[in-house]
Amino acid sequence: MSANPPDLRPDRANARLERDLSTVRPKGQPTIGMVSLGCPKALVDSERILTRLRAEGYAISPDYDGADAVIVNTCGFLDSAKAESLEAIGEALTENGRVIVTGCLGAEPDYITGAHPSVLAVTGPHQYEQVLDAVHDAVPPDPDPFVDLLPAAGVSLTPRHYSYLKISEGCNHKCRFCIIPDMRGRLASRPAHAVIREAEKLVENGVKELLVISQDTSAYGLDLKHKTERGHRAHITDLARDLGSLGAWVRLHYVYPYPHVRDLIPLMADGLVLPYLDIPFQHAHPDTLKRMARPAAAARTLDEIAAWREICSGITLRSTFIVGYPGETEAEFQTLLDWMDEAQLDRVGCFQYENVEGARSNTLPNHVAPEVKQDRWERFMQKAQAISEAKLEAKVGQTLEVIVDQVEDDAATCRTMADGPEIDGQLFVDEGHADLTPGDIVTVAVDEAGEYDLWGRLV
Q: 225 and 126 in one domain?
């Protein structure tokens, strides 16, 4: 968990945010700044808060100096993320002095106020009304109906051509290393018709790629008993099919490998949904998975992967893993490396285990020494990098459809269907790109491959 990239962080003055939000600011209009940390789900929360504030007549400042108060949306998943959140709060207090804290770390108000007693208020994750109340207390609204017009698509902190689409909150899993259910509660799915309505508005306003996110995307609608309402059924397969009919790229993140996930693969083969699955496998050894309180069926997972690839040969599989989990032996780690050789995942991330306050894994015996965790992380990433490099080299000579993210003088930065923004690789076009604009979907012939990125030319 890390801060959103610099060009997506509204605590820094940047041209896009200033152009979008600050072109008209009447004298005396109350103004709020925002620091958004953590994962895409937190970014969506920040967008919702800013959208509500805009509707109430607040201007949004792209820097500290221009804000009457600053909201810091925190991450609290790992101790390192907590430290980063406290640092961001401290910076906002130094630069502005009037700070409201929300987000996952807000579930521990005493932890925040113990370090920063001068914050104005602390609220927990997705507590939108409480955040607004705190803003009202700190900076009373002063709406002007002739000036304060809410954009049709609300406030977006991502580039205009892609958007995160959060379909649920919370999680029903009880993984020993995770405190998300304690912070964000149990699974709470949005009605399918509300998700589709939001997606339609996004596409109408120029969004070319919808990034479907939640804590557990596969479980979507389970708490609603997969209810059908206003013509849309609250089930991930039906939702993916409905989203795929809107004409935008649809990318699925945080998909647990439940048996019904296989029903999504034909939608990918048919082109309704991008052939891309982001699945948090976490480990491969059954004993490690049991200590994590995760499903311990790595062998059957390999069978599922083979079945997915048989249905959709071009599917991209991304995942994240934890090395150095308490009790992990060298043999268990070697099983993970061997599993990687068999699974041949396309995109892989890896974290070294660290204790999180409140997590049950903290009390497990046989914690792994830091130097051993570092060694295993390096060996794992070396394996993952070799697999990535070989898979990308196989794409040289292929013709791929890509979406343009950024155009500069020397090159256009693009992504293939196999690449999610900010987490996967990129494809660079360094000739004939001057007429491209972000959001264009174009065809490229791949000429060169690296460890994680591709280079190509327009066709």
A: no
